[in-house]
Amino acid sequence: MRRIYLGSTEPRVGKTVIASALARLAGDGAAFRATAPKGNAAEPEDTRLFPPDPANDISQRFQANIDAARATLSNAESGAELSIIDGTGLDGGRVDAALAEALDADLWLVLWYDEHSMGEGDVSSTRTAAGQFGDRLSRIIINAVPELRMHYVESTLLTTIADAGLPPASAIKQDGTLSAPTMREIVEHLEADVVAYPEGLDVLVPRVMVGALALDGGIYYYGQADEKIVLTRWDRPDLQMPAMATGCQGLILTGGQGPIPYVQNRVDELQIPVAVVPGGTVATATRLSDGALGGRGQMHPDKIAVMASQLQDSSLAQELLAVSA
Fold this sequence. Notes:
It is a single chain. This protein has 325 residues and is α/β, with parallel strands linked by helices. It has 14 helices and eleven strands. A six-stranded parallel sheet has the order 2-3-1-4-5-6, sandwiched between helices. Strand 2 (29-33), helix 2 (62-76) and strand 3 (82-86) form a beta-alpha-beta unit. Helix 1 (15-26) crosses helix 13.
């Protein structure tokens, strides 16, 4: 039985999605989460190795829980070829390094691509991150590489990492679905009031379209994206109605009021969520671009299939299958 532990020096770098996708590719693999970040909804099948206590640093309860974590793994591994453990990203990677050592797992380091620290063949940040994990580190994964930078990363950065004496590295291309937040994340970020169909908030949002920023007709403008939510003033039914006619997943209305009656009738027909914020449209869009749309949406089941497809023919999958053989 082999164990692969996905560690990182910070949370929210895509470990959970990668772990779940790798387990799917392995066939008989099993994916576990070391712990769950505060605010995450419970997984359909709770596979955390530690109790849900996000208020405390996992290192504070490490010794008390490590035996229970080993027992959880041991019980589940009887029917699996491989265990893939999604780490915590806490304490700059030191918690993950300790957990991987205690669980006797190979450690794969997941890093979020950053042009400032990784451009121009610069591997100093990668070397610093790798230094947190010691000899157990066997693989580096650079996640969310923009499509236009994939050639540079594959032809230059990965080679430079190898030349620096670091473990083999792989790159995962940025994808709109993988980086998308849910409408719930957006609503929470904006502290908006949900006034209709909150049960639809967990839909992924690959695009937010802002009303009144284009001269094109509404149907043409909004028809450019099938999956979107629309941000516009509450008193602009001329924008809200064509938005809903072209595959709108939800509305965020600015100006502090909910939809007018005939817009509400259409909302009821589609059963899409509507949230209301007090500020203006431009200010709200700016706040979104600074936060919830920063490209690090949380785990969502729809992301696993996309990630698995990306990894299907990658060196990561080949190594994974070799490990599980």
